[in-house]
Amino acid sequence: MEYYFTADEHYGHNNIIKYCHRPFEDIKEMNDYIISQHNSVVKPKTDSCTIHAGDFTLNGKSYADSIIKQLNGQHLFIRGSHDYWLPKSSPMIIERTIHKHFVVICHYAMRTWHRSHYGSLQLYGHSHGNLPPLNNQLDIGVDTNEFKPYSFVDILIKIEGTRL
User: Phi-psi category of 146—alpha, beta or left, where left has phi over 0 and alpha has psi -120 to 50?
Assistant: First the structure.
């Protein structure tokens, strides 16, 4: 499985353009651009999965489904602070071993996390690039990566670069 990571797309959220100084005139332009950026990275394969670490949309399930249908790959969603469309049973945290790296993914940054003292990674959103990461952490929100998802290789390079 090939994994990609993103957060804080805020599809359909007009105020996010102003709050985060996003360079779009309106929701349609923002949504279209983020979808295009996603599809430029994630190919339409069944063996790729994008993990969305919260704040996909604050709109309803039918709206979320209409966006998901436009995105390449499979998708796994973590609840963020605006994901009312997700079932309450949706996870707040996902832990996975990916290419021999233990990874903890949550919408929120953590001071410590499972296996953090053993080199595990923690990927988060919510802060829109305004919270500096600690060792082995990365803000995977769209505002930090030209509105594109991160590949796992991108994450390893970025995290290793912060330790140089």
Answer: left
- Give yes or no for a contact between 48 and 4, defined as CB atoms under 8 angstroms apart: yes
The total number of structural domains that make up the chain: 1
Question: What is the pLDDT tens value at each position of the chain, 164 positions in all?
Answer: 899 999 999 999 999 999 999 999 999 999 999 999 999 999 987 889 999 999 999 999 999 999 999 999 999 999 999 999 999 999 999 999 998 999 999 999 999 999 999 999 999 999 999 998 888 999 999 999 999 999 999 999 999 875 53
Give the closest residue to 151 by CA, choosing from 140, 136, 143. 140
CA distance 61 to 85: 5
Domain at 134, CATH number: 3.60.21.10
Instruction: Give the burial class of 3: count Cβ atoms within 10 A of its Cβ; 0-12 exposed, 13-18 middle, 19 or more buried.
Output: buried
Domain that holds residue 85: 2-162
Main-chain phi, psi angles of 83, to 5 degrees: -95, 60
